[in-house]
Design goal:
By secondary structure, this protein is an alpha+beta fold. The protein contains 18 helices and 15 strands. The strands form three sheets. Strands 5-6-9-8-7-10-11 form a seven-stranded mixed beta sheet, sandwiched between helices. A four-stranded antiparallel beta sheet has the order 1-2-3-4, with no helix packed on it. A hairpin with a 5-residue loop joins β5 and β6. α10 runs antiparallel to α11 and α14 crosses α16. The protein is elongated. The relative contact order is 0.11.
């Protein structure tokens, strides 16, 4: 193929294969036959390796450069990576490595065939999913998996939560971000994610879902499974965008938890609906205000300039959904769903994978995170996680210039700076409200602790401590290994589902091939 010589098959059956150059006058040929009649192996009996044909017979558009051959040759470049070459990269590979000029469409099909060789087909993925989940549960105790099919055994939903994440959630602040992202594979679907945030400010994935479409039924099913593993308490906060399907599902499934809106999504709605990007500074100041007095001042600024925006924020969205100081529950310093968006971005190259291959990527990344963060946690030499320690340390310096007086055994009045505060070191509150909401000592609380000769670390929420950080990542997430090594009961092996229906024909490329 590299020499651009084509061949044709002269004879082919179960015991004999004879090929010769496309030019009947050329001497190049190969003859192979079975070693013995009952064998599946062939041996070359005759080979004339020199072409005697004219150079005019060479053809870069090689007839043997089928998408199957291209896919087999390029497949190693997709092993152990999420992306690999796109169709244009496959065209380059065929030209430089195989000497073949191929169309974009053939390169796309070759890439698709390579993906199938490495990651399996979408159909195979649906069939193996029950066995795959069985092995995940077997190797990772406490892992929860669910598969939902319709009356015709066609896939509808799946749910996955690793046991280590479920157990580790007790060491997380009870704030969970949820969101969905569309998949790009043959059967499309939507990936749903629920994640907390650890004491070091990193995302802590709790649960994953794959559903046929993003609607109220799918969200209700996913959230019902989520509720079984994290519970439903007044302490729980659920943060999402304002999609009607999510809002309705949360209100139906979670009766006690508080629902908050992602402040970033609210900001995007304001810019798109009212065309007033210049008011965003006041909006974000209102979002992050700890005290209602400050919030009111920022809202007056917004109302004076854009009365309709102020009305939208108060009546349509509701202050309690996006404002830190008005939120009825406890969402700490988490005002957006950025922690979920980062997970979606992490999987951008795997969104066209078959479902099992996609879950493999999720497992591999979570396994790496748990190991890497456990190493970091073990090496921490301070009582708090690195990010919280870096927040707290500047407050020590700022507290030095404050004048502190004791009002009673647990209450201290701290003056100095732009704002004075009254701190209750027993109930861990301050009139500036920063201590109350973030559960990390504000500058007033630091000054009060110093005056009372109390360790400032005793005022910090345990969620920010090295101890909780280490406990959250103390276990290991294990891969399922090669399918040939699986030990799956027959009743699981015989449980299968088919695809959810395909929006795009299987042999049609989408986009411009830049992926």
């Amino acid at each position: 193929m590299k020499g651009n010589f084509e061949f044709r098959t002269r004879k082919s059956n179960r015991s004999l294969w004879v090929i010769e150059c496309i030019d009947p006058n050329c001497s190049w040929r190969l003859r192979a036959s079975k070693i013995v009649p009952e064998s599946t192996k062939f041996v070359i009996r005759k080979y004339v390796g020199v072409h005697s044909c004219s150079l005019l017979k060479r053809n870069a558009n090689h007839r043997q450069a089928t998408y199957v051959v291209i896919g087999e040759q390029v497949a190693p470049q997709y092993v152990g990576v999420e992306k690999g070459p796109g169709p244009k990269g496959v065209q380059t590979f065929a030209r430089t490595e195989l000497g073949a000029q191929i169309s974009y469409y053939k390169a796309w099909r070759g890439r698709k065939h390579a993906h199938t060789l490495i990651r399996g087909s979408p159909e195979q993925s649906f069939h193996v999913l029950p066995s795959y989940f069985h092995m995940l549960e077997k190797l990772n105790p406490g892992t929860v998996t669910r598969i939902e099919v319709d009356g015709e055994s066609r896939f509808k939903y799946l749910f996955l939560a690793f046991g280590v994440a479920i157990r580790g959630f007790r060491y997380m602040r009870k704030v969970v971000g949820i969101d969905g992202t569309f998949l790009k594979g043959q059967y499309r679907g939507v990936l749903l994610v629920a994640t907390a945030q650890d004491g070091n400010g990193q995302c802590y994935p709790l649960a994953w879902g794959l559903v046929d479409s993003e609607n109220e039924d799918a969200w209700s099913w996913f959230l019902t499974q989520l509720k079984e593993i994290i519970g439903d308490t007044d302490e729980l906060a659920l943060i999402s965008d304002r999609a009607p399907s999510i809002k309705k599902a949360i209100s139906t499934v979670f009766e006690k938890a508080h629902h908050g809106a992602c402040a970033w999504h609210v900001a995007q709605n304001i810019k798109n609906k009212f065309k007033c990007a210049d008011i965003m500074g006041s909006y974000w100041s209102a979002v992050n205000a700890y005290r209602c007095e400050d919030f009111t001042g920022y809202m007056i600024e917004i109302s004076n300039r854009y009365p309709r925006v102020a009305e939208y924020l108060e009546n349509e969205v509701g202050f309690e959904k996006w404002s830190r100081c008005h939120y009825p529950g406890l969402r700490y310093n988490i005002t957006t769903t950025n922690m979920v968006e980062s997970l979606n971005s992490m999987l951008v190259n795997a969104r066209d994978f078959p479902y099992v291959a996609l879950i493999d990527v999720i497992q591999e990344k979570m396994s790496k995170w748990w190991n890497d963060r456990r190493i970091v946690a073990t090496a921490i030499t301070t009582p708090l996680t690195p990010s919280r320690e870096s927040e707290l340390r500047p407050r020590f310096a700022q507290s030095n210039g404050r004048h502190t007086s004791q009002l009673n055994p647990i209450t201290y009045h701290v003056k100095g700076g732009e704002l004075e505060g009254v701190v209750d070191i027993f109930n861990k509150t301050c009139t500036c409200k920063e201590f109350d909401i973030d559960k990390l000592p504000c500058v007033h609380a630091v000054a009060a602790a110093h005056h009372a000769q109390v360790s400032v670390y005793s005022l910090v929420s345990p969620y920010y401590t090295k101890e909780y950080y280490l406990l959250a990542y103390g276990e290991t997430i294990y891969p399922v290994g090669s399918q040939s090594q699986w030990d799956v009961p027959n009743e699981v092996n015989h449980t299968q589902s088919s695809g959810i229906g395909q929006d795009r024909p299987p042999n049609t490329p989408s986009g411009n091939g830049s992926r």
